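Quick one - inputs below.
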Amino acid sequence: MASGVKPRVKVPKTAAIGDVVTIKTLISHKMESGQRKDKSGNAIPRSIINRFTCDFNGENVIDVALEPSISTNPYFQFEAKVPASGEFTFTWYDDDGETYTTAKSIAAT
Amino acid sequence: MGIKIVHPMAAVAMFALAATPAISDENANLVVNDEINITVRAAAPAHMENVSEVLSGWLFRADETQQFQMDDFDNPGMIWVDKAVASWGKAEGSEGKSCASCHDDPDSMAGVKAVYPKWNETAGELRTLELQINDCRENRMGAEPWKYTGGDMVNMTALIASVSRGMPVNVAIDGPVQSTWEQGKELYYTRTGQLEMSCANCHEDNYGNMIRADHLSQGQINGFPVYRLKNAKLNSVHSRFKGCVRDTRAETYKPGSAEFIALELYVASRGNGLSVEGPSVRN
Amino acid sequence: MQFTRRDALIMSLGAAAASVLPVQAFAAASAEEILAEFTGGAAVGEGGLTLTAPEIAENGNTVPIAVDAPGAVSVMILATKNPSPLVVTFNFGPMAGSQSASTRIRLAGTQDVVAVAKMSDGSFVQASQAVKVTIGGCGG
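Output:
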């Protein structure tokens, strides 16, 4: 399921020091649940993103364990502290062993 | 097993007999990204005989579904718009050209979706956006045409629609397209299938009423292509037409057929005055 | 993916249950098992956890839900009648701006969605919300 997987994140470019910011993330992924059958009646094997993490300057914001009941194109919204300027890093872990990462920096003033 | 004939009355019984349209919040307004004002209700165009106000399908959806469309990050349809942005700049075919070679930025397409389907004077034919895209691909790029309702095509129509969001639909119905428009109107009011239902039976006579657990909309197409929660992908107008006609238990016309092109012109014109909304989000 | 003790437990239970029990009983049992595993059998209280979910979902494929549990370490969400009831677990780190999160989930039908929060003092609270999943008007 490496094809067509694209992570997207929405992070404010700036914040006041000590602010809490809202972050939205989305990754295009089928999230094949393992519950479906193909036209010949064979079970379609599970293939999902099973974990998502967001860190700020190396410290964890949120660590999410995903199960097959998460919708196609997993979407998360959450809040993070911004005690200083720095970088948010986002990582998605695929059942097939691949990881997808992206980063966004934020300037705190 | 013999063919089960469904009496038309059975179809009528599917509708709850609500006296007034049941819209979750009839005063709701749609603003996308806090900046694009979408007209979701407008006075019906003069050519509509039985409806006084035209309403976007967005109004008929639950709050949660409505919210999906209010921010591009929350709108899953924008994933495919992104894919189209990538193919916009990709040279294909014998001429070594991409969309960008002639049209620069996708933003240059602002206003295009609002007037399609549109008469092409040079070719002497009515063109949907899909037909125009394939004309570009074949005759300017020297590339293979895309399948009418295929992924590449619906993505590109979503990109082109997205840059016209907020602009009023203003499809011409006179002059060289008038006879096609009349044909589309005829199709709209013709009952088809074992259920003997026309487009109008649901979308003109019963919009706002329940069809099982669902609110029937006016069947406006200003929001196409549509991201549907049901199949988690973008859906083109002709795919939707096919689904509707099939649901009347009829043999359907093919996407891209003369009949569906005429129907698209007519149905699009019923939304004149509403905003271009695609890619919209529906159930 | 990591193979946890919980997975092993669920799978072995599943195998045993599937051979003798109807699907419904299997699903209900495993929701309880998952909860017990999460809480370690501790009592689960109420309050301090808000679960937001629509009363009526227009489609079970994509149901927006949100949880907010000030002071929580982690929040688990269960869809009690899904074939596999565990939906998601949010673990909040030191840089979390709040112990809240939202996502979109699949619901196999009308059912109770349950959120369980583990608070920083080791206690547990839960909140639940019934969500009706409607069947669309047409196959369209």
